[in-house]
Amino acid sequence: MPAPVESPEAKSPSYDLSKFRLKRILSNNSVRKSISLLGSFPDLSETDDAIVVFEKNAYRESDVATQPAADESPKKPSYFSSDLKVATEFVNNIYGSFQVVPSRDLCGVKSTVIYPATDKHIEKYSICQKYLIRETPELYEKITLPYLTESQFSLEWVYNILEHKQEKERIVFEDDDAETGFILLPDLKWDGRNVENLYLLGIIRKHDIKSLRDLNGSHLNLLRNLRQSSKKAIRERYGVNPNQLRMYFHYQPSFYHLHVHINPVRNDAPGIWCEKSHMLDTVINNLELLPDYYQRATLPFVLYEGNKLLDLYEKELSVRGAPEESDKKETTDEPHTEPSKEGFSDEESDERQCKRRKLATPEPKETEGTAQACA
Q1: Tell me, what's the pLDDT at 152?
Q2: Which of 69, 172, 320, 355 lies at a 20 to 30 A Cα distance from 195?
Q3: Is 325 annotated as a binding residue?
Q4: Residues that bind substrate, according to the entry (predicted)?
Q5: Which of 164, 207, 219, 259 is the catalytic position?
């Protein structure tokens, strides 16, 4: 399949990026070499917020070639060329440190713009305290689901993709089947060129599956097709071995229309942590074992300080204060004189014996320190 051609609309945003005015820095990630900025486009609106993300492009292996083919025309850019500007910081025996500026072709910075940005977008790109929520099915029905219904991101952009109204030229693969079909296209976090940093989204066609919580045994054919067809399409298009791909769902996802994330296992992609991602293979296996697994399971997920959903869970669970209260309760129990074993069941006797050892062994300060470390 030939490389997609950019459409005129992709080159003509409604804003002029050079007119962005900074309000504050939301985050600055030195590991990922990215920075997220909150500001506005005053020429368009004085009230609408805008988020601009700058991220250094990942290195492509072809960019470090030192001996391009003689008949290659035009020559591909390389860091090791006459265009490289080198400033020496120091040389000490076998070690040297330099500041280098490569050719213009290799100095690009990827930028993502969200405009107008909502409070939820700002929260997503900000650095703040995080809390782990253990969501039972009951808590999902009582707290999470009503919140999602009232405050969900607009999914208009997703439907625009599925209906070919926008981003048609970016589609890598699509299956038109109403029940098991999906569209595969590059994620915004990928520049679409560097295969070493490949990042794709598989967005299903069905509109009634918000997240893992809605999946059941009747969706197995959809999930199997999503897995198999995506791997085949990626191998044909990009030459990536299917066994080198990571395919997973986020919970909670950033938008509530079921979609799978796909990237190489050798890359540290955003959101691959154990408290966030659920491997597609594991989801399929869980549903094969128990068709209503995700209606019965407790699913952990992370909420950020400032999230309204966190405030709702705080009222129900005291999320922010739970560790301190638990430690206090555990370390302030008054010791009891151990009664004789007669008159108690084996279970009661064992429980009292265990409690006696716990209170008698460490000094109070040691006990408190241990409890805090475990929390």
Answers
A1: 67
A2: 69
A3: no
A4: 157, 167, 187, 189, 250-261
A5: 259
